[in-house]
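in:
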């Protein structure tokens, strides 16, 4: 009995010891990671300081990621330059590149990107951008797969440079870049017929010109009757995300059939946007028929009304964009010549006929194939 009592006491002592030890641990954790103090006891500038510190950390994390990407792209350029040099001086062929890929994989098993396909991309990358300074200042600032996509789908250097700058300015993902290339954005941007040079200050006119394109591509209209403006207009609103993407960065949707009262008459704007960079309203009028000079007079009235009724004192003058089924550029230029309001005129289409130059044909693998190679994922039908 006494023996059993001693065991019970020992058990109780152990439980007490565990409880005390747990309390010590909790106390230590509280000391190491204390609960946040009540807001009232904090300095007045604490919230602002915390926000500044968090912003600095985010900036540094982003800088590290971008620096790592730039270093990788420059490494790939250096390797591509070396391969190009060996091909010219020692006649390296496909078999040598295959052997090189295998040796590099064995030497660096923890690194991806040394497949024969990616080595070919490195070679093409170095051939496309022979100047290392340009690579360091531009091409190395965008992800490697963006560069691969440009090598695959954009034939000329000016076009590739345009897309690199757009990626840097707009932050396009690879999917968005693919859509913009497919829609030939670099060919259409800044092509609308406008009177911006005559009606806006130089700095504003340059930015406004680049905000409009010609033609606009509305492949997402779906089942809308292309002969009925209201159906097209409704389809644009139903697909507002695609429509905003086609309009370009900076456009914010305000409304459809926005009412305006001028004198004793009621009018309605087809589509009203606000451009965040230009700091102004943009009135978009949609026509399912070819351009008619009378359309300019109607849009001119709308711009004057928006400037008087909606425009804030800090806003820039309202811009007008007239979208027609087709136009004669000479007629449009005459219609806009002496107008005081800034207006642009562009076509809209549902199918953009791509005329791909023969230079686009390449033995390079597609960016999807190389992405599968780098990620180690086999693609169906490729045998990888």
């Amino acid at each position: 009995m006494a023996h059993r009592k001693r065991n019970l006491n020992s058990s109780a002592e152990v439980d007490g010891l565990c409880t005390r030890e747990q309390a010590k641990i909790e106390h230590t954790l509280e000391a190491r990671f204390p609960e946040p103090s009540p807001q009232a006891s904090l300095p007045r500038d604490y919230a602002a300081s915390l926000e500044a510190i968090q912003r600095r950390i985010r900036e540094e994390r982003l800088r590290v990621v971008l620096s790592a990407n730039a270093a990788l792209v420059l490494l790939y350029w250096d390797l591509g330059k070396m391969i190009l040099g060996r091909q010219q001086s020692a006649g390296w062929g496909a078999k040598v590149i295959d052997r090189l890929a295998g040796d590099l994989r064995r030497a660096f098993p923890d690194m991806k990107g040394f497949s024969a396909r990616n080595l070919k991309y490195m070679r093409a990358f170095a051939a496309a951008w022979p100047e290392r300074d340009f690579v360091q200042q531009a091409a190395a600032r965008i992800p490697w797969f963006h560069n691969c996509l440009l090598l695959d789908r954009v034939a000329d250097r000016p076009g590739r440079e345009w897309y690199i700058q757009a990626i840097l300015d707009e932050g396009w993902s690879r999917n968005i870049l693919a859509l913009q290339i497919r829609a030939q954005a670099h060919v259409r941007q800044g092509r609308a017929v406008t009177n911006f040079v005559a009606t806006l200050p130089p700095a504003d006119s340059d930015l406004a010109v680049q905000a409009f394109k010609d033609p606009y591509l509305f492949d997402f209209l779906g089942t809308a009757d292309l002969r009925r403006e209201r159906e097209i207009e409704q389809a644009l609103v139903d697909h507002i995300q695609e429509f905003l993407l086609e309009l370009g960065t900076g456009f914010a949707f305000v409304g459809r059939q926005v009412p305006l009262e001028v004198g004793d008459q009621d009018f309605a704007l087809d589509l009203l946007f606000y451009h965040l960079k230009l700091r102004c309203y943009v009135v978009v009028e949609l026509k399912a028929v070819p351009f008619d000079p009378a359309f300019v007079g109607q849009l001119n009235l709308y711009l004057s009304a928006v400037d008087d009724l909606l425009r804030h004192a800090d806003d820039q003058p309202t811009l007008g964009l007239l979208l027609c089924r087709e136009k004669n550029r000479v007629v449009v230029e005459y219609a806009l010549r002496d107008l005081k309001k800034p207006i642009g005129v562009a076509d809209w289409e549902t199918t953009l006929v791509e005329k791909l130059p023969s230079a686009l044909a390449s033995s390079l693998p597609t960016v999807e194939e190389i992405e599968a190679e780098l990620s180690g994922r086999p693609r169906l039908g490729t045998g990888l």
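note: DSSP finds 16 helices and seven strands in the chain.
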